[in-house]
Amino acid sequence: MATKQANPKKNILFVTGESSQAICHRLELLRAGWAVTRVSEFIEALSVVRNQRVDLALLNLPGDDAVATDLPNVLRGVAPAAYLPVIVVADTAAEQQRCRFLNAGADDVVCLATAGGELVARVGAMLRIKDLHDQLAESRVALQEALRRERELLAKLRRDNANLQTLVTTDALTHVENRRGFQDILAHEFKIALRYNQPLSLLALDVDHFKMVNDCHGHPSGDYVLKEFAVILKQSVRESDVVARTGGEEFGILLPKAAPDQAASLAQRVREAVAQRQFNIYGRTIRVTTSVGLATYPHDAEITEPEMLVYLADQALLMAKETGRDRVTALCDVPMPIRIRWRLRYQQRDLAGQDTPPCPQKLATNRRQASR
Ligand code: GH3
Ligand code: MG
Ligand code: MG
Questions:
Q1: What are phi and psi of 289, to 5 degrees?
Q2: Which ligand 1 atom is at minimum distance from the Cα of 212?
Q3: What's the pTM value of the predicted model, to 2 decimals?
Q4: Is 219 in the pocket of ligand 1 (CB under 6 A)?
Q5: 191 lines ligand 1 (CB under 6 A)
Q6: Ordered mean pLDDT values, 10 residues apiece, the chain (372 residues)
Q7: Is 250 in the pocket of ligand 1 (CB under 6 A)?
Q8: CATH ID of 11-140, from 3.40.50.2300, 1.20.1600.10, 3.40.1190.10, 3.20.20.450
């Protein structure tokens, strides 16, 4: 006797004629709790599989028809479900015939003379496999969806990280690198220069008498001048050069692979571009000038580390201030006794644990020391 199945919702497509055996089998299937759609023509079966939910197909096919052996795969080809189990109900129990159906894609072969109970048991077993298959397919879809969400999240995290990194290393007023970003890039470029024995030049720039701009025209006008100043610097350099705002009205330009003469001519160009620029402030035109200090690794032989490059470019800048402003002072043009004094002072700072270059606020104090 057939056992009652737990899930009455399963739909079984039974492709068969009206033989008495087929009618018995159909009744057994209905008794087992499954819905059964019977069709007699294979063409109808294709339409049912395409348009209805079918959990399993039973094919009672003429065994000697060579075309019939391909029908399980043809049915599966039109079924929307990922897996459609197909059991062939063969007219005879010949081993050769059963093997032919199995080899051609049938999941199981039963004989038309098989008892109804066995048929139901075989259909039940196949439906269990179908359930597992469907669950696996669902898990795969869920897994793919989870993976997709994970990838999206990761991409967003990467974007947020990049934005954050840009925020942390960009000066809010002028949108060039800030001091922190500049120090990171300098450390990196210095390593490359050291490794490949390439020149690395640094320009330290300071707007001359900038306090007067603020005092005479107001702080917002000073901000405007700083922004435009940064634009002039950006427009004067190559894509691979790095412009940074290192302090209030102090800027740095890092020039990878630039020898002292190339860096000096760029410094002059920048200085002239600044001097020629007319800043329009509330209908009035003002001009500013800039002083520039230049140092180059390894041409300025005393330079052994990035902080020293910054320190010596700053000292050269201070000398440019002391000697009249609106000018470029290159370390290589500074008399040797002064350079030796600067180097000693840097080393003493190192020994005293002050391994960072002078901060911008201390420029005025340093300025007095620089020319001594
Ligand atoms: P020097 O030629 O010796 O460099 O003279 P200076 O006036 O440029 O230098 P000083 O250090 O005396 O003054 C710098 C001024 O820059 C003082 C400070 O208020 C101003 N400053 C610093 N940061 C900003 C800023 O973000 N916006 C504006 N508007 N002013 C700033
Ligand atoms: Mg200044
Ligand atoms: Mg300054």
A1: -125, 170
A2: 7
A3: 0.69
A4: yes
A5: no
A6: 56 90 91 94 92 94 65 90 90 84 92 90 95 93 96 97 95 97 98 97 98 96 98 96 98 98 98 97 94 97 93 98 98 96 90 53 45 45
A7: no
A8: 3.40.50.2300
